[in-house]
Amino acid sequence: MSSQTNLAARDRKVIWHPYTQMKDALPHIPIVRGEGVHVFDEDGKKYIDAVSSWWVNIHGHSHPHIAKKVSEQLSILEHVIFAGFTHEPAVLLAERLLPLLPGKQDKVFYTDNGSTAVEVALKMCLQYWNNQDKPKTKILAFKNAYHGDTFGAMSVSGRSIFTDAFNSMLFDVEFIDLPNAENISRLTSHISYLSSEVACFIFEPLILGSAGMLMYEAKYLDQLLEACKNAEILTIADEVMTGFGRTGTYFACEKLQNQPDIFCLSKGLTGGTMPLGVTTCTNKIFEAFFSDDKVKTLYHGHSFTANPLSCVASLASLDILLAPETLQNIKRIEAKHADFRNQIAHHKKVKTVRQTGTIIAIEWETGNKTSYLSNLRNTLYQYFLDKGIILRPLGNIVYILPPYIISDAELDYIYDAIKLALEEV
Ligand SMILES: *Cc1c(COP(=O)(O)O)cnc(C)c1O
């Protein structure tokens, strides 16, 4: 028995993995080391992390700059309660982050992951109206959206197999279609009609990740935000996936004229090193809570809120993100993806291929055969793993979402594997 199967067997006895049907799960691959775009298993096999480890890793694994800063911080201050106390890394991160965001964001509220960043954003909006004695309780969201796995975040996410067991316990949300040329005027008039009931609109800007990398145009989102502003509906940009360069600009909302009241950030925030969540808001929101009345306080907080190690990792990640090479890398990946898109667009197995910034998604033609579809995802997943590439298809959608340091040769290796899969799978 190799050490790899040994660890996988020990894992199987004691661990319950996320998003995994444990009954038919293949042995989990033990990873012992990460470096740049690669992770290495116990037997020394290396894998290109083409999905940035669930969309978090933007600068590559075990980045030396982040590692140095985090390990220095570890012997200075590992953690301190964040109510009644503060620390330099949290303040500095807020000072650096706020001016980077499009529009004018004034305050940072820390949590520890994307779902909780969303929970806080929703609570800010609902309580905003409550604190002004103008309660509004309806929330607007996109059909098929994904905003996380806690109850509030699930409620504003599309109903799916993920939420089936809980649907009756999720609060009511008004789901709208993704905007396009045909439906935009209907959507904007629907928004003004709902004005008096709707507290806020939460959206993933430009691209719905978990829904299958569904993309829509900035100009229509802009019109939705304009309609919300006119209807006094607060807006929440969930940039948990799109933030920190993913869509070609530092934030997806940079492509808009109208800006949201609130941003949710996580995933790439720490460069994918450790957990941290951020919810930012404008003074307009903040001031609705600023009061002598205790009831108007935002009663929310997590044990590891603003963890100094996570804040330092985020500061180090920002150093790298803002270096000119990183933006050049992002533009390089964008151009490479666009070239690949053109090469495969007319392949008979390609139903559609779409791209936003560093994300490219290829929808496999399934000919409406559901039996084929259910096997296809697992077959493709294993096919790429065998070639040393981590790609996790969402159903029949294969997407690449790489760390920005990926080389042209590594991208070509992934493209070639996908081209071969189009012939063989
Ligand atoms: C991943 C994701 C979340 C949830 O973040 P977690 O850290 O996994 O809780 C929320 N919104 C979007 C858009 C995401 O992609």
Structural description of this entry:
It contains 13 helices and 16 strands. By secondary structure, the protein is α/β, with parallel strands linked by helices. It folds into 2 domains: 7-62 and 326-424, Aspartate Aminotransferase, domain 1 (Alpha-Beta Complex); 77-322, Aspartate Aminotransferase, domain 2. Helix 4 packs parallel to helix 10 (308-322) and helix 7 (184-194) packs parallel to helix 8. 41% of the residues are buried. The model has no long low-confidence stretch (mean pLDDT 96). Bound molecules: pyridoxal-5'-phosphate. Residues 113-115, 118, 146-148, 204, 209, 238, 240-241, 266 line the site of pyridoxal-5'-phosphate. It is an enzyme of class 2 (transferase).
Please bin the fraction of helical residues.
25-40%
CATH architecture of the largest domain: 3-Layer(aba) Sandwich
At the fold tier of CATH, the topology name of the largest domain is Aspartate Aminotransferase, domain 2
The CATH C-level name of the largest domain is Alpha Beta
- Tally of individual domains: 2
Q: Which series of helices and strands comes N to C? A: HEEEHHHEHEHEHEEEHEEEHHHEEHEEH
Which class of secondary structure composition applies to the elements?
Answer: alpha/beta
Strand content: 15-25%
Tell me the overall shape.
Answer: globular
Q: Main sheet?
A: 7 strands, mixed
What hetero molecules are bound to the protein chains? Answer: pyridoxal-5'-phosphate
- Helix count? 13
Radius of gyration: 22 Å
Whole-Å distance between the termini? 31 Å
Binding site for pyridoxal 5'-phosphate: 114-115, 238, 302-303
Binding site for substrate: 54, 146, 267, 301, 392
InterPro entries: Aminotrans_3, BioA, PyrdxlP-dep_Trfase, PyrdxlP-dep_Trfase_major, PyrdxlP-dep_Trfase_small
EC number: 2.6.1.62
